[in-house]
Design a protein that fits this description.
GO molecular function, one term: catalytic activity
Protein name: HIT family protein
Oligomer: single chain
Number of strands: 5
CATH class: Alpha Beta
Structural class: alpha+beta
Largest sheet: 5 strands, antiparallel
Strand content: 15-25%
Radius of gyration: 15 Å
InterPro entries: Histidine_triad_HIT, HIT-like, HIT-like_sf
Shape: globular
Order of helices and strands: HEEEHEEHH
CATH topology: HIT family, subunit A
Bound molecules: zinc ion
Number of helices: 4
Number of domains: 1
Length: 169
């Protein structure tokens, strides 16, 4: 049984319901939202409109819609930031690094010199990521890393607008 993180209320449901300024793109089954932690400027997530936790909970329609949305925003990120590469990843369960119990597919423009600490490809071992059963949040250096990459709502909104303006028609 995959152990899920606990977060109440669900921050992604809150974003979908109450924080429309965070939404970059939308489709019938998905929303693309900005990630409040900008380890890379422009990093965002494609989320399901439904509150479901993992890949295992998705319908076939949602599976297809997620990759279509990811490709759309990847195209926008390439136009907006000229990254060295685009990293996509997705976590299922606390032991894979999942921190919010709502399906989200990361789309990240990689640039030189970033320092994530957590998340692929840096999540080399569970111990290294500071995870223990029943504990959903990371320990060690990650709190400090997060603090460093937390940006203001105004900056996030600017980033959202820039990416949105670069979406394919
Ligand atoms: Zn949710």
């Amino acid at each position: 049984m995959i152990e899920l993180p606990i977060r109440e209320p669900c921050d992604l449901c809150v974003a979908a319901r109450e924080e429309s300024w965070k939404i970059i793109d939308e489709s019938e089954h998905t929303l693309t939202v900005i990630n409040p932690w900008q380890f890379e400027v422009g990093q965002c997530c494609v989320i399901t409109r439904r509150h479901v936790a993992t890949l295992l909970d998705l319908s076939d329609q949602e599976c297809g819609a997620i990759l279509v949305s990811a490709k759309r925003v990847a195209e926008a990120l390439v136009r907006a930031y000229r990254p060295l590469g685009i990293l996509t990843f997705q976590n299922n369960g606390v032991f894979s690094g999942q921190e919010t119990p709502h399906f989200h597919f990361h789309v990240v423009p990689r640039q030189k010199g970033s320092d994530w600490g957590i998340g692929p490809p840096q999540l080399a071992t569970f111990d290294g990521a500071g995870r223990e059963r029943g504990i959903t949040h990371d320990a060690g250096e990650d709190a400090r890393r997060r603090e460093r990459v937390q940006v203001s709502a105004e900056q996030l909104a600017e980033t959202v607008n820039l990416i949105r303006s670069n979406l394919p028609a």
